[in-house]
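Please check this:
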Amino acid sequence: MVSTTIRHVVIVGGGSAGWLTAAVLASSFQQAESGGLRVTLVESPDVPTIGVGEGTWPTMRDTLRACGLSESAFFRECDAAFKQGSRFNRWASGAADDYYFHPFVLPQGWGDADLAGRWLERHASVPFADLVSYQPHLCVHGRAPKQAATPEFAAVANYGYHLDAGKFGLFLKKHCLEKLGVHYVPDHVTAILSHDNGDIAALQTRAHGELAGDLFVDCTGMQSLLLGKHYGVPFLAQRGVLFNDSALAVQVPYANQDDPIASQTTSTAQQAGWIWDIGLPTRRGIGHVYSSAHTSDEAAERALRDYIRATGGPEDIPAPRKLRFEPGYRARFWHRNCVAIGLSSGFIEPLEASALALVELASAMLADEMPATRAQMDISARRFNDSFTYRWERVIDFLKLHYVLSRRGGEHDGSGYWRDNRRGETIPQRLSDLLALWRHRPPSRGDFDRILEVFPAASYQYVLYGMGFAPEPGLARRERVGEGDGATADAFLRQAADLTRRMLPGLPDNRGLIAHIVRHGLPT
């Protein structure tokens, strides 16, 4: 018989997605013993976690705080570092001096002045982000985004994290079991049992028998055991838009223990993909994401090794870990009494670090939309599916933006990868329409009108103008009501420059502050 009241949520699969979802749900509701929600996580000891996602968005600060976690403990136990945005090398033209930043801080005066128009009119020789924000300068100089006296989770400059994904999952697991009352079943799921109406009734486990529940969360990774295999919810492949389907990942030691820790994720374009470089306190995490249709695994590994040597890494690195993935997402994310979160719902390349952010968004919305009864569940499911279809589409648009604006060609495009990425039939219609509009005006809040957008209009400006997008002549002279005049924009640009001058000497370096946090902690 189908339960009418939602009392028990069963999460299938651990790792970052499973344990973060468990932490969000368990911290959002009273425990079952107090008449609240029971949260159980079943995790197979036979299935290793992929450990995708070493970068987060700034939203992770609020998520960890809401779950009752300590930021100081997080740094100690997860080998964590600060992330203040992303730096893109050689994406626009392929030249050695080709770079731009996508920082987490909004442009100074964002929404109160036509900064893009003034930049084009007076300052186009200066990289856009470097002019309108102090944060790229903090990154270039290796500064931390806060001081030792800044309380936990508070910021001087907006920040997210770099972390060890394996350690992060264990950190969350410990908190869930010791503080949040999550019930843990270390076992292998052997079968899925259904009610007559098609809802999942229980999971058959190898050693613990049947595990019944009212709502089941699929965090089983790319195998998508519940939503994909059991329910057969279609997978919407996106390889025709985002070509990358392979990755090689490796951990690289620093040459010296006191080498600087980068304040940003660095992404360096390659002939048929790009290389990420993430700095943690004890190592660098480096990987090559590429299209198997445009290069071979052997060529991709050679490019990865060349990059590591060129950036001060050792000659003798271990064999990189190879990953294959199909870029895309499910046609639905919540079907009957099953919700997919994490890789079971979809996966695309890690450009802009959307994987963990989508887990955060999904677990938060699941907590907000948690139905009281089975009768309400289909309403919650429709709302959830509408929201996450929109979010996946916007993430794909934003990632594709990085490729369609590239001017790489010739010696930088022997495989045709970058030219293929600019073909009109590979560009989503909504993005194509926006690019046409942006020829005549900058991206604005009106282009992205949902309250919880995954990427705000400011992010589109950082990428557009960082990649050298050329609007029609006259954009610099068009001023709109409410955006002030050129003098207003100039005042904000001076503020950004002044903040840069004051922050650089006032903030510690990344490694120094992280070492302080590990030894002494942050104020609470």
User: Anything to note?
Assistant: Residues 134 and 501 are 9 Å apart (CA to CA). The chain has a mean pLDDT of 94. Residues 374-404 form the longest helix (31 residues).
